[in-house]
Structure formats: structure tokens, C-alpha cells
């Protein structure tokens, strides 16, 4: 049986590595038309001709082998460590036909490591449109490699690439640049000191700013002693190396590539002029956001109402059909009601991700990143922080992981700390249900008040993130420099398959990720709401019947009084009353208090918790929204969810740090419990104060 | 009989739910990473 080939997919950000990975492996990794999608390596298997198999590793995008961030470090660690089980037999360098010159810098560096290398030129479908023509034979000869001209969008050239991978042993490992030409005497000394080592590999180890983790350190520790040159001298030599490489690339492309500039002047330039304009750019972005939020409301109301009433009917049907007993009640009041509290939001979540995915795929998101960089710099962040902040609208966890491509530790730490302020999809259910209860349905200039409120909450989240970044920038005394280079990809018509996959993946992650937690918490809450200690709970029937003996209550009214009495004296009722003094000044009752406490596991648990608590003991078929609308403030009378308490709740959820998984990721990324604990205490404390002030002012 | 079965099912569901929550948030047995890619925790980020 033949050995499996280890293939590393390497390339500059946004060259379509992940699309090539998906085309080779048949997997469905997320693809985006903006840089920084891959921050960790991903793996898959590719079936090649003649029964050969390749183990494909999709590595984070990097511009060169001079690592300046953690994700780039992943690439270099792998290429320098022959002992790594994933060390590639073959490197496939993916480049973009429109940025070949820049992409070839990385290619020549990898080639000089004497790893068999194939050059993939992707996006070939745009060549004619851009007036680009390539002399592949000449390029192959000069670059001493095989070239695969492919288009993942049009699914062209993939089989040819597979053929080349199969015959990787025939590839030349001759380098593009003689490393010793960088500084002959220095490299001569290096050669004498390490006669059996590859010079260019040694050179990379000497010039890297990062630590090499598990790389075979023993081999390289000796090199430390060889850092005879000062840091400045080494940097100067690194620059000399880059210049030499570009001289070689320019010379090669002079004959190998022709660009007809007349046909290259396309719509992109005109569009960029408007979309990144310092006034129009922001206005257009604002208008796009407004359209998205309005559409989310307009398009999802019908499916949401349908799901809500379906769950109410299912709960009723379960109660009427299954044998009477505790488990039937658990199913009807706990599990079905709790899950209904999450499934109801699928339409809105799906529409939100549909729009985000279209913006990413079309290439517009990179223009947003560019626009935001102007604002971000004033607050101590860079444009690179925008990618995590925008990703944070889906979930803070991958967003925090996406900070790995920020070189400056200070900027990275600030971005990690402020990202949880951005409105993640878990906040959406809470916002939607509270907005529906407390904000009137009217419209202004065709935009509904409810959609405007939702957009305002997103802006508040973003504003809180940027504001706190500014404060942290002043407080944190960490010195570091950074630079920001953003890839401006071409505008593309979003591919239906990619958009559909993203929407499906994100919605699935929302439902199943949160669904398991909600299911478990619903079961526990139902139990705590259906059982209780002492006579007050166990003899509720007798106590309530005696209490209301003089009043002529109907059987239904008496039953409701008994159930209400039981809930008040259940385990959850006792716990809720214990925390009530702390939350009453915010306009909440003990049931909301329980929902807030349980949503520290995950925010979206809030609606499910209330749905479960309100369902316990209720015999009526009722939707979640109607149950919440019918709740009465036990002290003041009137609806519990009124304008003042609703706004207070919205603001509490906008600022509070209520996600244990995010705290765990922050701990992992900062390697300390100090930062997540600061986040928990400061964000939640701030949320409490803002919610308190809002309620006291508005009541 | 029906009551006993229903109570068994309720307490089983409760036990499973508590086990899931404890393993998710409080204590989970450490898995040995098979995908080490550098650094001290196998994720290449330290």
C-alpha cells in the first residue's frame, strides 16, 4: 500500500486556499471574500488518481515566511520542523492571478526550503476580463516548478492539480534564490558552522521574531549563538533578501505575464471610489445596515409566528395525548417550551447570516474593514480589529480566535477584551422578544421603530467596544507597534452554494450549540419549578383552598391560584425571591432574575427559561410572546414587560458578559484567568448600573 | 405503575441534564490532543 502524501496548502490571505481545500477534499470549510478566514490549520483527505491519497492541510494565509503574527507562525513552524507528523511532502502554494507578483514572494521562499512545490494560479476565470495572459511554459521553466492554472469558482483545473500532486516526486527542489547571495561572508560562516543544515532554513530561524514552540528546538538552539549580527543588521539583510526576491520575480514576470491595462480598468475602481469614500462610504454602509435590519423584521415575522404557534400546539397536544404524569409535564412544559424559545429565532438568525454572507462573498466586507480602520486608529485599534468585531456579530468565540492575525499584543489584547460587546447572535433572541413586547409597531420613513431599535442596539454594542478600546488603550502600558495591510478583493457575484452553506452552518451551530444547553437547562429549571420543600409547596392545594374559601372562585381560577402558589414556593421560587432585592430596582421580578442568572451559561437561554417558568402549571395553549405580554408586575400592577423594564433589560443584555464559553476562550487566548475575570466583573457591573439608571429614569 | 415509570424518566432526564452541564461548565475529563501543532497546548497559539 502506498504512503499517504502530506500536502500543505499555503498562500497569501484571500487567494482562495480554502476553496482549493474544499475542491480537493470535498469538505465544506467556510469560505469568505475577505482576509483572515483561516487562522488555524484545517485537515482533509483528497483521493488522487490510481488510488493514491493525500492528506491536505489548509494553513493560515501568510504574505511571507517572516512571521509577525501567531497564525503566520503556524505555517513556519510546520515548514521548519521535519519531525512534525504533518511536515509536508509537497507544498501547494495558492496564488491569485491578479496579484501574482506579491504572491510569488512566498512561493520563492518555500521553494528555497527545498520542499517539492507546486504553484497554483487561482481565479483564472478573471484573466480575460482583466486583460492578463500568462506564458505558463516560461514561468514553469524560470520558477523551476509545475503550475496549475485553476478556477475554483468555475471548477476548472482541479483534476490537473490532482495529477500534479500525484507526481510530486518528479518536481525539482532547486531553489529560486541562492541564499548566500544575501551576504556572502555571513553565509559562508554559517555554512562552516552548520555544514549539514540547509542554509535558508537556518537563516529563517535566525531572523524570526517569534518563538518556535515545539519546533525541533535542540537543532536550532545552537543557532542562537550564531546571532552575531545586531537585530538592525539582520533586519537590513532581511530587506535585502526581499529586494533580491522581487528582482527575480520582476524579471520572471516581465516575460511570463502580460497585462493589457486598457481592459484592466473595470468597474472595481469606480465602485471602490464610492464605497470607500470618506463621506459616501459611511452613508452607504449605514443604509445597507438599515436595509438589513428592516428586512430581518419584515421577512421573518410570518415564519416566526408560525413556529411559535406550532410549539404551543405541540405542547398542548403532548399534554392531552400522553398519559398524565410528571414526565408528560416535563415534555410539555419544560422541553418543548424551552426548545420553542430557541427554534422560533431560526428565521431571523438565518436572514442575518444571509446578509452577512452576501456582504463577505461580494467583497464589500473588505471595504468596510478599510473604512473602519480610519475610525479604529483613533481608539487604539487597527483595521485588523474590525474582522473580529464584525465576526463577533455571529459569535464572540471564533471572533476572539480571529485576533491571532493581529501582530501587536496590545491591540490583540484590547480586541479580545472588547469583542464580547459586539452584538452576537445569542443576544438576538433576547432583543427580538423584548423589542416585540415594549417597542410599538409604527413606522418612520418606511422603517419600523422595532427595526431601528434593533439597529441602535447593534450600534450601542459596537460603540461600547470602541469606547472601551479607547479607555484600555490609555490604561494598558504595553509597548508595541503594528501596521495594517488589507486585501481589497475583487467584487464578485456571491456564489449561491457558498452563501447557502454559510447560512446553513451558522444556523445549525446556533440551534445545536445553544440547543443542547437550553435543553439541559430547561429540564433542570422545570424540575426546580415543579418541586419544592416544606408544607407550603406540598400542601399548596389545602392552603390555597382555605385561603380563598370565602371568595367564589371558579375551578379554573382556583387551579391557577394553586399553581401560582406552588411556583412561588418551589425551589426556583425560593432562589428567585432570594435574588429579588438585587434586581427589583431594575424593574425585574424574580422570574426574570432566574432567567438572567441562567443566561450566564449562554444568553439565548433567557427566552427558553422564561418560556419554561411561565409554562409550568399552565393548561392553556399560549405562545411565548403572549405569556410574557400577560405577566403582571406583582408590586406596581400593569404589564411586567413595559417600556422602562424592557429598555433596562435590553441595555443589561447589551453590556453584560454572560457567556461562559467566551470566558473560557479568552482564558485560552490570553493564557490567564485575570483577563476573563476582569471582563466578567467590569462588563456585568457596568450593565447593572446602566440598566438601573435606565429603569429609574424611564419608570 | 405509570407514575413510577414517569418519575424514573423524569429523574433520569434530570441526571443526564446535570451531567451534561457539569461536564460542559465545571469539570470535563481532559482529552489528549492528537492534533498538536506547536505551543504548549496543542493549538499553536502560545
TrEMBL record, chain A:
UniProt keyword annotations, A-Z: Cell membrane, GTP-binding, Ion transport, Iron, Iron transport, Magnesium, Membrane, Metal-binding, Nucleotide-binding, Transmembrane, Transmembrane helix, Transport
The keyword Electron transport is annotated on this UniProt entry: no
Native source species: Winogradskyella psychrotolerans RS-3
Subcellular location as annotated: Cell inner membrane; Cell membrane
Transmembrane annotation, as ranges: 279-297, 335-359, 379-401, 413-439, 451-472, 509-529, 635-656, 676-698
Annotated Mg(2+) 1 binding sites: 22
One Pfam family of this chain: Gate
CDD domains the UniProt entry points to: FeoB
Protein name as annotated: Ferrous iron transport protein B
GO cellular component, as recorded: plasma membrane
Membrane topology summary: Multi-pass membrane protein
GO molecular function: ferrous iron transmembrane transporter activity; GTP binding; metal ion binding
From TrEMBL, chain B:
One Pfam family recorded for the sequence: FeoB_associated
UniProt keyword terms in alphabetical order: Membrane, Transmembrane, Transmembrane helix
Residue ranges of the TM segments: 6-26
Source organism superkingdom: Bacteria
Protein name per UniProt: FeoB-associated Cys-rich membrane protein
Amino acid at each position: 500500500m502506498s504512503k499517504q502524501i502530506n500536502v500543505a496548502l499555503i498562500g497569501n490571505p484571500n487567494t482562495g486556499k480554502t476553496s482549493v481545500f474544499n475542491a480537493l477534499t470535498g469538505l465544506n470549510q467556510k469560505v469568505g471574500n475577505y482576509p483572515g478566514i483561516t487562522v488555524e490549520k484545517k485537515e482533509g483527505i483528497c483521493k488522487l488518481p490510481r488510488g493514491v491519497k493525500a492528506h491536505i492541510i489548509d494553513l493560515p494565509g501568510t504574505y511571507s515566511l517572516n512571521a509577525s503574527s501567531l497564525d503566520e507562525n503556524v505555517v513556519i513552524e510546520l515548514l521548519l520542523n521535519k519531525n512534525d507528523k504533518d511536515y509536508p511532502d509537497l507544498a501547494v502554494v495558492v496564488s491569485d492571478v491578479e496579484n501574482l507578483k506579491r504572491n510569488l514572494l512566498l512561493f520563492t521562499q518555500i521553494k528555497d526550503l527545498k520542499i517539492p512545490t507546486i504553484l497554483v494560479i487561482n481565479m483564472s476565470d478573471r484573466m480575460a476580463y482583466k486583460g492578463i495572459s500568462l506564458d505558463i511554459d516560461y514561468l514553469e521553466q524560470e520558477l523551476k516548478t509545475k503550475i496549475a492554472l485553476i478556477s475554483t469558482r468555475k471548477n476548472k483545473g482541479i483534476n490537473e492539480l490532482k495529477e500534479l500532486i500525484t507526481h510530486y516526486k518528479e518536481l525539482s527542489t532547486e531553489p529560486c534564490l541562492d541564499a548566500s547571495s544575501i551576504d556572502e561572508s555571513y553565509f559562508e560562516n554559517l555554512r562552516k558552522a552548520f555544514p549539514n543544515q540547509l542554509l535558508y532554513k537556518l537563516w529563517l530561524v535566525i531572523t524570526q521574531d517569534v518563538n518556535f514552540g515545539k519546533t525541533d528546538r535542540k537543532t536550532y538552539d545552537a543557532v542562537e549563538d550564531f546571532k552575531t549580527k545586531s537585530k538592525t543588521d539582520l533586519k537590513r539583510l532581511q530587506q535585502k533578501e526581499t529586494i533580491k526576491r522581487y528582482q527575480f520575480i520582476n524579471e520572471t514576470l516581465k516575460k511570463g505575464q502580460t497585462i493589457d491595462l486598457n481592459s484592466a480598468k473595470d468597474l472595481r475602481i469606480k465602485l471602490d471610489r464610492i464605497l470607500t469614500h470618506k463621506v459616501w462610504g459611511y452613508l452607504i454602509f449605514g443604509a445597507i445596515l438599515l436595509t438589513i435590519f428592516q428586512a430581518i423584521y419584515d421577512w421573518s415575522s410570518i415564519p416566526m409566528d408560525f413556529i411559535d404557534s406550532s410549539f404551543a400546539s405541540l405542547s398542548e397536544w403532548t399534554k392531552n395525548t400522553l398519559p398524565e404524569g410528571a414526565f408528560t409535564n416535563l415534555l410539555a412544559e419544560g422541553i418543548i417550551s424551552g426548545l420553542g424559545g430557541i427554534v422560533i429565532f431560526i428565521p431571523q438568525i438565518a436572514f442575518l447570516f444571509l446578509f452577512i454572507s452576501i456582504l463577505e462573498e461580494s467583497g464589500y466586507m473588505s471595504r468596510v474593514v478599510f473604512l473602519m480602520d480610519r475610525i479604529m486608529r483613533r481608539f487604539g485599534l487597527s483595521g485588523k480589529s474590525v474582522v473580529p468585531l464584525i465576526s463577533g456579530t455571529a459569535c464572540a468565540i471564533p471572533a476572539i480566535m480571529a485576533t491571532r492575525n493581529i501582530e501587536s499584543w496590545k491591540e490583540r489584547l484590547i480586541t479580545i477584551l472588547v469583542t464580547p460587546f459586539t452584538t452576537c447572535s445569542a443576544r438576538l433572541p433576547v432583543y427580538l422578544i423584548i423589542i416585540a413586547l415594549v417597542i410599538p409597531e409604527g413606522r418612520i420613513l418606511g422603517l419600523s421603530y422595532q427595526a431601528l431599535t434593533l439597529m441602535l442596539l447593534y450600534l450601542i454594542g459596537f460603540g461600547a467596544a470602541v469606547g472601551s478600546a479607547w479607555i484600555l488603550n490609555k490604561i494598558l502600558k504595553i509597548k508595541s507597534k503594528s501596521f495594517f495591510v488589507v486585501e481589497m478583493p475583487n467584487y464578485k457575484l456571491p456564489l449561491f452554494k457558498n452563501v447557502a452553506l454559510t447560512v446553513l452552518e451558522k444556523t445549525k451551530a446556533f440551534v445545536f450549540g445553544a440547543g443542547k444547553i437550553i435543553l439541559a437547562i430547561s429540564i433542570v429549571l422545570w424540575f426546580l419549578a415543579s418541586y419544592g420543600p416544606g408544607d407550603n409547596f406540598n400542601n399548596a392545594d389545602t392552603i390555597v383552598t382555605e385561603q380563598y374559601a370565602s371568595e367564589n372562585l371558579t375551578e379554573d381560577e382556583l387551579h391557577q391560584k394553586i399553581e401560582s402558589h406552588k411556583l412561588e414556593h418551589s425551589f426556583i421560587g425560593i432562589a428567585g425571591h432570594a435574588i429579588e432585592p438585587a434586581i427589583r430596582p431594575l424593574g425585574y421580578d424574580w422570574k426574570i432574575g432566574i432567567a438572567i442568572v441562567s443566561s450566564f451559561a449562554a444568553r439565548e437561554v433567557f427566552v427558553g427559561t422564561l418560556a419554561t417558568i411561565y409554562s409550568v402549571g399552565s393548561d392553556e395553549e399560549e405562545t411565548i410572546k403572549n405569556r410574557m405580554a400577560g405577566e403582571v408586575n406583582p408590586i406596581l400592577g400593569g404589564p411586567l414587560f413595559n417600556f422602562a423594564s424592557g429598555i433596562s433589560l435590553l441595555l443589561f443584555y447589551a453590556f453584560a458578559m454572560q457567556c461562559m464559553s467566551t470566558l473560557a476562550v479568552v482564558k485560552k487566548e490570553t493564557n490567564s484567568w485575570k483577563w476573563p475575570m476582569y471582563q466578567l466583573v467590569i462588563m456585568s457591573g457596568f450593565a447593572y448600573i446602566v440598566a438601573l439608571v435606565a429603569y429609574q429614569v424611564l419608570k | 405503575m405509570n407514575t413510577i415509570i414517569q418519575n424514573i424518566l423524569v429523574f433520569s432526564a434530570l441526571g443526564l441534564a446535570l451531567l451534561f452541564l457539569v461536564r460542559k461548565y465545571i469539570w470535563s475529563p481532559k482529552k489528549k490532543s492528537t492534533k498538536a501543532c506547536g505551543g504548549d497546548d496543542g493549538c499553536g497559539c502560545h
